[in-house]
Amino acid sequence: MITPTPLMQLVAGVWGFKTLAVGVEFGLFTRLAGGRTITVTEAAAEFGMDERPADLLLAASASLGLLEKSGAGYRNSELAEQFLVEGRPYYFGAQVRYSDLHTYLPWHRIGEALRDNRPLTWDPQQQSMFDTTDPKLVAEFWDAMFSTSRFTARALAEAYDFGAHRRLLDVGGGAGAFPIELCQRLPQLQATILDLPHVCARAEERIAEAGLTDRVGAVAGDFLADPALPDGHDVILLSMILHDWDEATNRALLARCHSALPSGGAIVISELLLNDERTGPPEAALMGMNMLVETEGGKNYSGTEYVTWLGDAGFVDARVVAFDAPGANGAVVARRP
Ligand SMILES: C[S@@+](CC[C@H](N)C(=O)[O-])C[C@H]1O[C@@H](n2cnc3c(N)ncnc32)[C@H](O)[C@@H]1O
Predict the structure, then answer these.
(1) How far apart are CA 89 and CA 68, in angstroms?
(2) Whole domain around residue 243: which residue ranges?
(3) Among 122, 128, 130, which is best to mutate for testing ligand 1, by the most ligand atoms less than 8 A from CB?
(4) What is the pLDDT of residues 77-105, one digit of tens each?
(5) What residue's CA is closest to ligand 1, atom 3?
(6) In this structure, are 55 and 129 located in the same domain?
(7) What CATH code is carried by the domain that includes residue 38?
(8) How far is the CA of 196 from the centre of ligand 1 (A)?
(9) Ligand 1 geometric centre to CA of 292 (Å)
(10) How many domains does the chain have?
(11) CATH of the domain at 116
(12) Phi, psi at residue 4, to the nearest 5°?
């Protein structure tokens, strides 16, 4: 018998997200790092709340797989211990915080975006959402990207062998999650991040923290407007770049990548790929909706669309490599003949 229960689960999706977000906001998972347990009474005292809300928060967090319970005590699940404790290498809380602060309320007006085909999270008078120099937003957005992409980079490195490459150009590399993860894994690799000037400053801080200033550099530039992309690299990465733009912009950018690579050079497009039927998976289709909220022409594309555009730009041997990560479910890789 078909029931409306799946619909109630969708309704509760908002409640689940907000439960996660408030746990991150209160530092719940960071406080429980390293196996510490907390009872309802202790949580009420520690967070300055009554026992009723403390009981509800801990129970809901456990129901979502964020906490586990033994006896009267709650502790971090493995998921929270690895990804929601601040300071851990694959900390995901910055994405939770950014989404909570900057996309959650705009999503409330999604009907407006559907009717007007305009973004909701930034002023459309600006050239693009990336132009902001507000230091708080720079920190929050690019830290969110970093916390999504650090694990994505690890999954990509396990699915695609970068062993033959020596010099990586990360186009729109943000704060540097991919170059940092890849250079830590691959001693032969050096990397350049190409991004807007205010983002390069954030990347340089992250590169220095990782002790990689001798192998990773950040170059300020505009990948749409500069005469050419920097050359001297044998692999180009585009992670969560092409979903920000329309097809014509993406085809032009792929042509510039082709020109910047030597013969035999590789291109790697890391994205949440839509299936060919355009029915899912939900993380790709919903990221597409998020691109409606956050960009002016962006959407999530299928692997086949990228393969076609790559072929038209002159690349060969295009193929999709599947993996499982928050920022991508696969990469489309190809090479310049
Ligand atoms: C969605 S973020 C992806 C960041 C990174 N690749 C990752 O996956 O974590 C898009 C990036 O493209 C950069 N960007 C946008 N327009 C750009 C332009 N015209 N030139 C250079 N970088 C740009 C933004 O500053 C931002 O860092």
Answers:
(1) 22
(2) 93-335
(3) 130
(4) 999 999 999 999 999 999 999 999 999 99
(5) 240
(6) no
(7) 1.10.10.10
(8) 8
(9) 17
(10) 2
(11) 3.40.50.150
(12) -80, 10
Residue 51 pLDDT exceeds 90: yes
For every residue of 185-240, DSSP letters joined together read H-TT-EEEEEE-HHHHHHHHHHHHHTT-TTTEEEEE--TTTSSS---S-SEEEEES
**What band does 127 get if pLDDT is binned at 50, 70 and 90?**
low
Out of 83, 104, 139, pick the residue that ends a domain: 83
Beta-bridge partner residues of 167? 190
- For residue 42, the CA-to-ligand 1 centroid distance in Å is 43
Q: What is the pLDDT of residues 134-172, one digit of tens each?
A: 778 778 888 999 999 999 999 999 999 999 999 999 999
Q: Which of 64, 83, 102 is the last residue in one of the domains?
A: 83
Shared domain for 149 and 248, answered yes or no, is yes
Give yes or no: residues 205 and 311 share one domain.
Answer: yes
Verify that 182 and 247 share a domain, yes or no.
yes
Q: Is 88 among the domain residues?
A: no
330, two tokens: 């696969």
Buried b (16+ CB within 10 A) or exposed e, 284-320: bbebbebbbbbbbbbbbbbbebbbebbeebebeebeb
Is the omega angle on the peptide bond into residue 281 within 30 degrees of 0, that is, cis?
Answer: yes
Active-site hit among 102, 165, 198, 243: 243
Same domain, 244 and 207: yes
